């Protein structure tokens, strides 16, 4: 279940390596093997999972594209208060590089995201291809400091973020059927009603307690949790 909340610093050091957490729904698979269990977090899940099609590790590459999008602008590529409309956006891979938030982002970075967020998993970038992209391996990133603008957007969009909460795998399947997302469907029926949030989502956690061992310790109660969190992102200067 790849998402920003599951990317943590290994230590408090400035050059700390990044750790991936929350492997509760993970599975070790061989090359070419496929899976079929619907699971994940709404805003990060690949179209083929929502469409209840067999899927491969290509879904993780999609999630990396979504995470990259968020890290460069501070808000998710897919969002709607109505779950059916959110699913429809993802199924159609409908997203934009909105101005002014993307004006200072290089075309190379946008190209990197576009290749990772391909609706068709066959043409979607693999991990090896992503690592060889000029934005990662080359010198095509712009020398821009986007830390302030991205931080402002993250604070705004993560404050009350329904989309960041994890789905229960069983609830996903149940609500997929309720939304009538048939296998191979490219969209969602416009007559569908919104699923019950209480059935769909995990309970909201206390922001001050979510970073146990990190921002919740030795922090002034009046301070901004995001600014003090030991797991916050370092400033970015090459985009």
Automatic annotation (TrEMBL):
Assigned keywords, A-Z: ATP-binding, Kinase, Nucleotide-binding, Serine/threonine-protein kinase, Transferase
A Pfam family it matches: Pkinase
GO molecular function, one term: protein serine/threonine kinase activity
SMART domains assigned: S_TKc (SM00220)
Organism per entry: Iconisemion striatum
Domain of life: Eukaryota
This protein's name: Calcium/calmodulin-dependent protein kinase I
Stretches assigned to the Protein kinase domain: 1-136
């Amino acid at each position: 279940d790849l998402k920003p909340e599951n990317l943590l610093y290994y230590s408090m050091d400035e050059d700390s390596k990044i750790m991936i957490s929350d492997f509760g729904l993970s599975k070790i698979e061989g090359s070419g093997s496929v899976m079929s269990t619907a699971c994940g977090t709404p805003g990060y899940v690949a179209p083929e999972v929502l469409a209840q099609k067999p899927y491969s590790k290509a879904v993780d590459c999609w999630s990396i594209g979504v995470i990259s999008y968020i890290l460069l602008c501070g808000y998710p590529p897919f969002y709607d208060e109505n779950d059916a409309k959110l699913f429809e956006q993802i199924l159609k891979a409908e997203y934009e590089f909105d101005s002014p938030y993307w004006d200072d982002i290089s075309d190379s970075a946008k190209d990197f995201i576009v290749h990772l967020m391909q609706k068709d998993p066959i043409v979607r970038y693999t991990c090896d291809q992503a690592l060889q992209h000029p934005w990662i391996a080359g010198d095509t990133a712009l020398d821009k400091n986007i830390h302030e603008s991205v931080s402002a957007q993250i604070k705004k969009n993560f404050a009350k973020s329904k989309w960041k909460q994890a789905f229960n795998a069983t609830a996903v399947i149940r609500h997929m059927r309720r939304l009538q997302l048939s296998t191979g469907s490219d969209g969602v029926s416009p007559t569908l009603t919104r699923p019950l949030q209480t059935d769909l989502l995990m309970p909201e956690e206390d922001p001050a307690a979510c970073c146990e061992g990190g921002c919740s310790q030795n922090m002034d109660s009046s301070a901004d949790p995001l600014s003090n969190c030991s797991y916050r992102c370092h400033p970015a200067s090459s985009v």
